[in-house]
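Customer escalation, tier 2.

The customer says the design service returned an amino acid string that "doesn't look like it belongs to this structure." They asked us to rerun it and document both sides in this ticket. The original C-alpha coordinates are below, unchanged.
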Protein backbone atom coordinates (compact mmCIF):
# COMPACT_ATOMS: atom_id res chain seq x y z
CA UNK A 1 0.00 0.00 0.00
CA UNK A 2 1.32 3.42 -0.91
CA UNK A 3 1.95 6.12 1.64
CA UNK A 4 -0.44 9.13 1.44
CA UNK A 5 0.97 12.09 -0.49
CA UNK A 6 -0.50 15.35 0.88
CA UNK A 7 0.11 17.09 -2.45
CA UNK A 8 -2.28 14.77 -4.34
CA UNK A 9 -5.84 16.05 -4.60
CA UNK A 10 -7.32 12.67 -3.67
CA UNK A 11 -5.20 12.55 -0.51
CA UNK A 12 -6.37 15.92 0.86
CA UNK A 13 -7.94 15.85 4.31
CA UNK A 14 -11.12 17.49 2.95
CA UNK A 15 -11.69 14.36 0.85
CA UNK A 16 -10.29 11.68 3.14
CA UNK A 17 -10.60 12.28 6.88
CA UNK A 18 -12.60 15.49 7.49
CA UNK A 19 -15.89 15.49 9.38
CA UNK A 20 -17.76 17.25 6.58
CA UNK A 21 -18.46 20.41 8.56
CA UNK A 22 -16.33 22.49 6.19
CA UNK A 23 -18.30 21.22 3.20
CA UNK A 24 -21.54 22.25 4.94
CA UNK A 25 -20.18 25.74 5.61
CA UNK A 26 -18.95 26.18 2.03
CA UNK A 27 -22.17 24.72 0.64
CA UNK A 28 -24.25 26.94 2.92
CA UNK A 29 -22.40 30.09 1.87
CA UNK A 30 -22.69 29.10 -1.79
CA UNK A 31 -26.38 28.32 -1.39
CA UNK A 32 -27.04 31.60 0.43
CA UNK A 33 -25.36 33.64 -2.30
CA UNK A 34 -27.25 31.71 -4.99
CA UNK A 35 -30.59 32.17 -3.20
CA UNK A 36 -30.02 35.92 -2.81
CA UNK A 37 -29.08 36.26 -6.48
CA UNK A 38 -32.02 34.16 -7.68
CA UNK A 39 -34.45 36.18 -5.58
CA UNK A 40 -33.06 39.33 -7.18
CA UNK A 41 -33.44 37.76 -10.66
CA UNK A 42 -36.95 36.36 -10.18
CA UNK A 43 -38.61 38.92 -12.47
CA UNK A 44 -36.47 38.03 -15.48
CA UNK A 45 -37.60 35.72 -18.28
CA UNK A 46 -38.15 32.84 -18.73
CA UNK A 47 -40.87 32.81 -16.12
CA UNK A 48 -40.16 30.39 -13.32
CA UNK A 49 -36.46 29.92 -14.01
CA UNK A 50 -35.41 31.70 -10.81
CA UNK A 51 -37.97 29.76 -8.78
CA UNK A 52 -36.74 26.50 -10.27
CA UNK A 53 -33.20 27.48 -9.35
CA UNK A 54 -34.25 28.39 -5.82
CA UNK A 55 -35.93 25.04 -5.30
CA UNK A 56 -32.93 23.19 -6.73
CA UNK A 57 -30.38 25.07 -4.60
CA UNK A 58 -32.34 24.65 -1.37
CA UNK A 59 -32.99 20.97 -2.11
CA UNK A 60 -29.33 20.33 -2.82
CA UNK A 61 -28.27 22.04 0.40
CA UNK A 62 -30.81 20.02 2.39
CA UNK A 63 -29.39 16.91 0.73
CA UNK A 64 -25.95 18.00 1.95
CA UNK A 65 -27.26 18.20 5.52
CA UNK A 66 -28.86 14.76 5.16
CA UNK A 67 -25.62 13.27 3.79
CA UNK A 68 -23.51 14.89 6.51
CA UNK A 69 -25.63 13.44 9.32
CA UNK A 70 -26.94 10.31 7.63
CA UNK A 71 -23.94 8.78 5.87
CA UNK A 72 -21.14 7.19 7.91
CA UNK A 73 -17.87 9.11 7.93
CA UNK A 74 -15.34 8.40 5.23
CA UNK A 75 -14.51 9.09 1.62
CA UNK A 76 -18.02 8.34 0.35
CA UNK A 77 -19.62 10.97 2.59
CA UNK A 78 -16.96 13.55 1.74
CA UNK A 79 -17.20 12.84 -1.99
CA UNK A 80 -20.98 13.21 -1.86
CA UNK A 81 -20.67 16.52 -0.01
CA UNK A 82 -18.15 17.78 -2.56
CA UNK A 83 -20.39 16.71 -5.45
CA UNK A 84 -23.44 18.38 -3.89
CA UNK A 85 -21.48 21.61 -3.35
CA UNK A 86 -20.55 21.61 -7.03
CA UNK A 87 -24.16 20.78 -7.95
CA UNK A 88 -25.38 23.87 -6.03
CA UNK A 89 -23.12 26.06 -8.10
CA UNK A 90 -24.10 24.33 -11.34
CA UNK A 91 -27.83 24.64 -10.61
CA UNK A 92 -27.39 28.37 -10.03
CA UNK A 93 -25.18 28.80 -13.09
CA UNK A 94 -27.61 26.99 -15.40
CA UNK A 95 -30.64 28.94 -14.17
CA UNK A 96 -28.90 32.32 -14.15
CA UNK A 97 -27.23 31.59 -17.49
CA UNK A 98 -30.57 30.68 -19.02
CA UNK A 99 -32.08 33.93 -17.82
CA UNK A 100 -29.16 35.97 -19.15
CA UNK A 101 -29.36 34.33 -22.58
CA UNK A 102 -33.14 34.72 -22.84
CA UNK A 103 -33.08 38.33 -21.66
CA UNK A 104 -30.31 39.24 -24.08
CA UNK A 105 -31.71 37.50 -27.19
CA UNK A 106 -35.50 37.54 -27.01
CA UNK A 107 -37.15 40.93 -27.66
CA UNK A 108 -39.60 42.24 -25.11
CA UNK A 109 -43.26 41.60 -25.94
CA UNK A 110 -45.28 44.53 -27.29
Amino acid sequence: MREPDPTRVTDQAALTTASGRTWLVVGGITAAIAVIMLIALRDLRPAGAATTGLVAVVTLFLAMVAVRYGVPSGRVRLALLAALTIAIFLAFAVCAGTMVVVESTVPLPG
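Tier 2 assessment: The sequence is consistent with the input. The two ends are 69 Å apart (CA to CA). The helical segments are 13-16, 21-40, 49-70, 75-105. Sent an explanation to the customer and offered a walkthrough call.
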